[in-house]
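Check out one such.
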Amino acid sequence: MSSDYEYSDDDGDYYDDEEMIDGTQDDLSGASEDDMDMDVYGGDDFKVTPKGKRKSYEVDYDSLSQSAVEKLVKEDVDYICSICGVDESVASLLLRHMKWNKERLVEKYMDNPTSLLVAAGVTAPEPTTTSAQSRTRSIDGSASRRSTRGATRILALGGSKTKSPTTSPPLSHYTPRSFKPKSDEPFVCPICFDDSSDLRTLALDCEHTFCSGCWNAYLVSKIRDEGEHSVKCMAEGCALVCPDPFIRTVLVPAPGAPIGDPTQEEDNRKAWSHFQELLVRHYVASNKRLKFCPYPGCTNTVSCPSAADKSSLTTIVPTVSCGARGIGGQMTQSQSQSGWGLTGKEHKFCFGCHIESDHRPVVCSVARMWLKKCRDDSETANWIKSNTKECSQCQSTIEKNGGCNHMTCKKCKHEFCWVCMGPWSEHGTAWYSCNRYDEKAGVDARDAQSRSRASLERYLHYYNRWANHEQSAKLSLDLYAKTEKKMEDMQITSSLTWIEVQFMKKAVEEVERCRMTLKWTYSMAYYLAKGNEKDLFEDNQRDLEKAVEDLSELLEGPIEPENIPMLRQKVTDKTVYVQKRNEIVLEDTAKGFLEGRWKWNASVEGFDEPERTEY
């Protein structure tokens, strides 16, 4: 069957490499309006800029740096401060407790502020006994007025009952207060048992006091080792949470403070930086419109409102890019100049699922099904069914290891025929052949065996091709290196400049991109139901695969100096053709999802139940 999207090498004109279509089509981004008003921020915070009308297989999204997300966090904190009349440190703790749901937070705060403040770890529960009341500080005013005070007091040895300031000082100037000792009893740290007279002590409003060294070690451990963004008081059973100013004061001394151990100070600064990143990650994880870049070391975030609703994932494949390149979001100078290798690859991933790659054209639910099938042992069971049979008496699994069809189960001693699975007593003297094809039990057994074998062969057909393209993509680094060497040789043996030999680099990038498309088309084809739509899909798949292999052959073939001009023209033309074929596959598949054309041979999440098809 021929495809409506057929494209021939003879159908188009020749292209020069300067006229080639830009291959980075996945950077498309449009301004989107949502509850977070993300479009108010400009400059470098947004890595992706609008590039005109998007294609059917693309989605609108914005890429934000960590500083841009921190601005969004600050907006939410300021909003809660203005509505609830609390300071920034309290607002931040409340938002974290409510998973950054501002509307729900305001509702619960107006209903019962004391209960919410206690649940969020801002204040300690009210004492229930007279003796307990005598050991705690008196609490003046209503709960709402109490909540406007800072949630933290930093006490010196034997701290007094002086009230906390009504507003939290700025983080960069938050310094400990000094108080007169209330008794002459020496203080002993409950953790390290240090009783030095000059020991610096710190405490939250619960007045559980510990030395600054223990607080420092505790906070660093909680942040660095456990990834905690809400660190509770060290005292056993205490639910108070350390607010941000307290953590900043412990980890990052105020300007003019005595210089301590340089190594410890560096660890503290790293811990504070990691704490800020943890806050951003918690904010992003709590917002379904945001997703953190999964690449190691990258701190960028992507906003994709169109993929926030899971029901939309049956019609779109939300492939996005955070705007960064390379490992850790940064490239070395040499990588930036050459743009080669996996270290300079764009950070592309799927916003709708946990597959950390571009799995277009197949939707997330089908991609997950395929990966699960490749991971689990279901195909091992298929192999067993194809190469073994079960004893009809005790159901033990038996593998045939000889030519005789007379089988005896070692477990139950049942004798049966390997060919028809019927009892051997009914076979007379036919030791090496079986003519009993009309026995119902034997027919059913043979049919099941054939179906199992056919299922395995079908799976292996798609899996081998899927794995082949995956392996080719993994070898792309070697292909990059070989092609770069050829580009250098071409400059030496011809009059072409470095800019003029870039057609080789563009061709390699296009081959890698198309192999990823081909890889996932096989997972989709495996689950597609038989019919005209599948035939059309496989026609487009075949045309793209043939074009990619032709271009790969041109790239990997030997280069003769006298043939360089002709090679340049061929590679350039073939690259454009391959790109067009890739566009056809992606566009047609995306439109098929939008129009509901695709039917499946298995149950797929979000789609109608399939009509069973025998293969």
